[in-house]
Amino acid sequence: MTTPVINDGAPDRAAFIDEAGSEEDLYEDYRSANHRYGHSGGGGEQLAINELISDGSVVYAEALWDHVTMDDQELGFKAGEVIEVVDATNKEWWWGRIADSEGWFPASFVRGYVKQCRKRTDMFSEEQLHTIFGNIEDIYKCHKKFLKGLEKKFNKDQPHLSEIGSCFLEYQTDFQIYSEYCNNHPSAYAELSKLMKINKYLYFFEACRLLQKMIDISLDGFLLTPVQKICKYPLQLAELLKYTNPEHRDYKDVEAALNAMKNVAKLINERKRRLENLDKIAHWQSSIENWEGDDVLARSSELIHSGELTKISQPQAKSKQRIFFLFDHQVVFCKKDLLRRDILYYKSRIDTDSMEVVDVEDGKEKDFNLSVKNAFKLQNKFTNEVHLFCAKKSSEKQRWLQAFEDERKRIQLDKETGFAITEVQKKQAMMNAKKSHPTGKPKAVTRPYYDFLMLRQKHPMLPSSVPQQQVYVLAEPKRKPSNFWHNIGRLTPFKK
C-alpha cells in the first residue's frame, strides 16, 4: 500500500488512515508481518536501497508511528512524516533526514515504499509512468467498488445461498476499462524491459517490491495480473454455472453474467485487433503513390472490404477500372500502374457518412442513361452527388452491398462502446510507417499491400504470456474461410 504524497512532499495522512484502518490496527498488522517476515531492514532490501542511494537516487520511507527520543543522535518524527533515507547499511538503524534535521531512526518504524523524487525527471517522466502503468489506478478504483458489491452479495454463513451474478451484470460496462490497459500492455512491457537493463531502475523496482513485502515476482509479472484477471472471469463463471442448480435463484443471473463477461472479453480482443491493425493501414498508405489529403487514420481504423470495380462518372458516363478500399467512414480508390502492376496511385476518396447505398437492378439506369449489370450506387443524402459502380459478378456485388452494411454497423457499435483511436496512437502508426519508407526509396505495394489485405484474417488475442487455453475460450468463433483472401492476388500480381 503506497501513501499518496501531496505537492509539498508531505503524505496525505488522513487518506492513508481512512483506507488502511486505525493506527492501532496498522501497528498490530505490522507486528504480525514482522513476526513472519522480519522487519523492513532485510539484507536484500538493504542492498537494493543502498544501491539506489549510491547511484544518486532520492529514497523515501514513511513513518508508521511516532518516534520520540531524547538522544540528539536520533531522528524524531511523527507518524505519517516522510523521511529521506541517507544510509541503510545497518540492519536495525537507518540514517535519515527530515528538512534540516538528521539522525538515526529504527528501521522497523517506517513503512516501505520507495518513491523517486518528482524533480528527478531524468529517471521517470510522466509519459514513462503512463506507459508503464497505463490506467491501472482506474482498474484499482473499479475493483474496490466491485469487491464491495461482491461482499454484499456473498452469504458468509451459507455460501451456497450467495447471489453474485447480478454484481457482474452491474459492473459489466465498467470492466471495459480493461481494454485500454490490455492494449497498452505491450508498450508497458517494452518500456519496462528497456529500463530494467539499467541498474539504477533495476534496484529501484526491487526496493519497491521488498519494502512493500510483495512476493518474489518482477514488476512485469505484477503488471500482467490485470490481463490475466479479465481472462479468468468467464472461466470462473462457467465453472460456477456448471455446479449451480438450475433451480437456484442465482442461476439465470450467473448465466447472464457469463455471457456478459464473454462479451467484455470479445470487445477487448476486438479493440486490440483494431489497434494492432493501425500500423498495417499506415504502412499501406505510405506505399501508395501521389497520396493527397488527410491520412486514412484521421478518420478510419479498419479495412472492411476491398476489390476491383468499374466506376462510372457523370456527365460523360466514362467508365474506369479502379481498386477500392472500404474503411469505416470512407472509401479510397486507386489506379494500377500500367507497367508495374504492383504499384497503386491514389485517385480520390468518398465520404461514406454522407452517402446511402442504392442497389441498382440490371438494365437501364435512369440517372446515367445507360444499361448496367451487377451495379450499385452511392448517393449523397444532401446533394446531387452520385457514384455508379459495376462489379464483374453478381456475387461480388452482393459482397460489396454487405460490406457497406457492415461498415455502418461497425460505426454504430463504436459509438455505443465508446471506441476511439487517440491522436497519439495515430501519429505513432504513421511515424512507424514513414521509418519503413525512407525518402527517395522507390515505393511498391508488393509486401505492404499483401500484409494489409491479410490483416482481416488475423485475430490477435491478449498478450501471448496469458495461457492460451484461457485466451481461446474468450476468442470469437472462428470465421469461415473467405475466397476473397485466396483470390486477392488476382487484383495485384505480386513482385517476384
From TrEMBL:
Kindly list the places in or outside the cell where this protein is found, as annotated in its UniProt entry. Cytoplasm
Which PROSITE patterns does the protein's record reference?
DH_1, DH_2, PH_DOMAIN, SH3
Q: List GO molecular-function terms, semicolon-separated.
A: guanyl-nucleotide exchange factor activity
InterPro entries noted in UniProt:
DBL_dom_sf, DH_dom, GDS_CDC24_CS, PH-like_dom_sf, PH_domain, SH3-like_dom_sf, SH3_domain, SOS1_NGEF_PH
Any matching Pfam family: RhoGEF
Q: Which CDD domains match?
A: PH_Collybistin_ASEF, RhoGEF, SH3_ASEF
A GO cellular-component term linked to this record: cytoplasm
This protein's UniProt keywords: Cytoplasm, Guanine-nucleotide releasing factor, SH3 domain
Domain SH3 residue range list: 56-115
Q: What is this protein called?
A: Rho guanine nucleotide exchange factor 4-like
Organism, per UniProt?
Callorhinchus milii (Ghost shark)
In the UniProt record, the gene name given for this protein reads arhgef4
